[in-house]
Structures are given as C-alpha cells and as structure tokens.
Amino acid sequence: MSASAAASELAVTYQEVVPTTSTDAGTLVVVTVNDYRYISQGARFAVGIMTGNAFIDADVSFTELPSNRAVGARKYNTSSSAWQGIFAAMTDKQLRSICDEIVRELSQR
After folding, report:
1. Is 9 exposed, middle or buried (0-12, 13-18, 19+ CB in 10 A)?
2. Cα dihedral sign for 29, 33, 39, 40?
3. What are the DSSP calls for 12-81, one per residue?
C-alpha cells in the first residue's frame, strides 16, 4: 500500500487494529481478506501450471475520519490462470493491483 500511495502522493499509516477514536482528518480503509492462495513467481517458474491459480478475495470498507461516517465498501477479487504460464500475475502483482485501485478510490474523493 505504501508504494501505491507514494505514487499518488498520499500519506498512509498501517495499524493492526481499527482505531476506536481519531481526531485527525482522513479516510480509514479496513481490508478484510476472506480467502487467498499465495503463489510466488519462483514457484510458478519452477513448477509451471501445476502450482495452480493465485487469487485474493477481499472486502474493503472506507470510513471518513474523524466523524466515523461510512462512505462506502467494495469487494476486490483477483485471480490468475495457471494456463498463462510463468507470465501469469502472481500474488504480489495482484496485491499491488488492489492497492492501486484503493488509492484511485481515495484520490477521487
């Protein structure tokens, strides 16, 4: 998320738990990963299509701070096909794609 935000000149901070109060203005983004399958580039290169498909299923909610007003929610799903061979999008590329999309959503506000 840091790389995606830096490219758009947005400041981000990471927190393990949802803050109960905030006095700073901003947008709280809560990402809930429902399911995923991690496939590295090395695994895809070494084993090919036998590694299967990489995927991510996540729910993201956006809350305006400090008012704690919910402003939206979105589902993000990514998947790669093992049949695309070693050039299929691995988990790291899928994560970057989701982060870029979240930053685009924030930039539109």
Report:
1. exposed
2. positive
3. ----SS--S---S-EEEEEEEEEEEE---HHHHHHHGGGG---EEEEEEEEEEETTTEEEEEEEEEEE--
Q: Where are the domains of the chain?
A: 2-107
Q: Which amino acid is located at 8 in the chain?
A: S
Token pair belonging to 80 = 């790669």
Name which of 60, 51, 59 is nearest 90 in CA terms: 51
Q: Is 0.85 topped by the overall pTM?
A: no
AA letter at 105:
E
Closest CA to 80 of 90, 71, 70, 65: 90
| pLDDT tens-digit readout, 10-63 | 888 888 887 777 778 889 999 999 998 887 767 666 666 666 778 899 999 999
Q: How far apart are CA 32 and CA 73, in angstroms?
A: 11
